[in-house]
Design goal:
Layout: E1 16-21, H1 34-44, E2 48-57, H2 59-70, E3 78-82, E4 88-96, H3 97-106, H4 111-126, H5 134-149
Parallel strand pairs: 1-2, 2-4
Antiparallel strand pairs: 3-4
Length: 153
């Protein structure tokens, strides 16, 4: 992407974290506790909060985005669309609540724990961390666990 696409620090960006539901009901967790935690994780990685839009959706909705924008014919728990380069953390994060629920069952974790992991996984991508190689994926898992340990909710 061209550099012109990304906002710079000189542009006015009001830090904000918002949660929306596309085609699913709101998850049964207290969303009001999450912004402070998310911002703490961002600060821990020497980054700055821009605008984050979390959009909770179904498998079908996220699958369609995966096909349309990434040409991936697979189910996934999250797709992150960055709107800045690190250290500015800004973007849209689409999360399939169905995938999160299935992953929680598979890993024998509470739904809220798995949802928090996925929420912060997207933030870590926006902080500049990848997960395409086995080494990067292992590092991402360590960073997720560190972030989960910072939760107060």
């Amino acid at each position: 992407m061209s550099e012109a696409f990304f906002p710079t620090f000189s542009e006015e960006i009001e830090p904000d974290i918002a949660f929306h539901c596309e085609d699913v009901p709101e998850p049964d967790i207290d969303l009001t506790l999450l912004p402070d935690w998310i911002n703490a994780v961002i600060a821990h990685h020497q980054a700055t909060l821009g605008e984050l839009q979390y959009i909770f959706c179904s498998d079908a909705y996220l699958h369609q985005l995966n096909l349309e924008y990434l040409q991936h014919d697979t189910l996934t728990d999250i797709i992150t669309f960055p709107y800045a380069e690190p250290p500015l953390v800004s973007g849209d994060l689409y999360i399939s609540l169905e995938r999160v629920a299935d992953n929680a069952l598979d890993h024998q974790l509470p739904f809220a724990t798995e949802l928090h992991r996925v929420i912060i996984h997207g933030v870590l991508h926006l902080c500049g961390y990848g997960d395409k190689t086995p080494a990067d994926a292992a590092r991402m898992r360590v960073l997720e666990e560190e972030a989960l340990a910072l939760r107060t909710s």
